[in-house]
Design a protein that fits this description.
268 residues, Arc Repressor Mutant, subunit A, Rossmann fold, 2 domains, seven-stranded parallel beta sheet, 15 strands
């Protein structure tokens, strides 16, 4: 069993039991307690389990990880995903970018583009793009969440409904086995649903830690998007769902740097 396979099995076991001790995991996987401690620390850093004394339990399905913590999780994966997604956005396109740390990395990657029109409900995205003099950056009105600079509420939804853009770029807190896209804040979900309705194509960016992660509010389904950008091959049931609904899958290889021109030539 590879380390990645063991990690996936540990996560499934913790989900099934609600808690697993280091002793149990060491016995079940026939490795040392030190190996399990390293596994659990890494899984906790990725937000897949909650590290507790003597073992691991489930992350909360009702409260998201703090924004400053999320900004530091899976940095390399998020950067690779961002570069890969940005390579699929033509210059002089119009797009929505919603709330999320992955989307902030995407905004940074888009700074290499020209002539974009960006509508966002993310103050951090607006701050990243504001120095691009050839971009037209439009910030949605509404209630500002102090914890992460996200803008939500009825005014935000009304504002987004005024537009029809080429690309909607969204993030997500969790993806269930049936393809459900899950979030923690129902107001954020309603804004994201407006973005889904008003985008000609929808791109989802999510690193592997979001696979099977629990969150309480259903935003939509993987079948509703046009392309999914991630850093590891998704579980079989999600791949099957994407094939059935013609959802393009892009997996960022950690050993290969993203060449925007090569990717554009391949898909063009």
């Amino acid at each position: 069993m590879t380390q990645q396979e063991r990690h996936e099995a540990i996560v499934e076991l913790v989900k099934h039991q609600g808690y697993a001790s280091i002793e149990q995991l060491a016995r079940d996987f026939d490795v040392t307690p030190q190996t399990i401690r390293r596994d659990l620390n890494q899984l906790a850093e990725e937000g897949l389990v909650k590290r507790v004394h003597g073992g691991a339990g489930l992350e909360s399905s009702t409260v998201n990880t703090a924004y400053q913590t999320r900004k530091t999780l899976n940095l390399d994966a998020k950067r690779r995903i961002a570069e890969m997604l940005a390579a699929q956005i033509p210059d002089s396109s119009s797009l929505f970018i919603n709330i999320g740390t992955s989307n902030e990395f995407i905004a940074e990657a888009l700074c290499q583009h020209t002539g974009l029109e960006v509508i966002t409900n993310n103050l951090n995205v607006a701050a990243i793009l504001q120095h691009k003099t050839d971009f037209n950056v439009i910030v949605a009105g509404g209630q500002v969440r102090s914890r992460d600079g996200g803008i939500i509420g009825e005014a935000t939804i009304d504002f987004i409904n005024q537009f029809k853009v080429d690309y909607g770029i969204i993030g997500i807190s969790g993806i269930d086995g049936d393809g459900s896209l899950l979030e923690f804040d129902y107001q954020e979900v309603r804004v994201a649903q407006a973005i889904l309705r008003n985008s000609r194509q929808v791109f989802l960016a999510a690193d592997h830690s979001k696979f099977h992660r629990n969150a309480v509010v259903r935003q939509g389904n993987l079948s509703q998007i046009n392309a999914f950008f991630t850093d590891r091959q998704p579980p079989d049931e999600l791949c099957r769902l994407m094939r059935e609904h013609d959802v393009a899958l892009y997996v960022a290889d950690p050993l290969i740097s993203v060449d925007a021109e090569a990717i554009a030539a391949e898909v063009g």
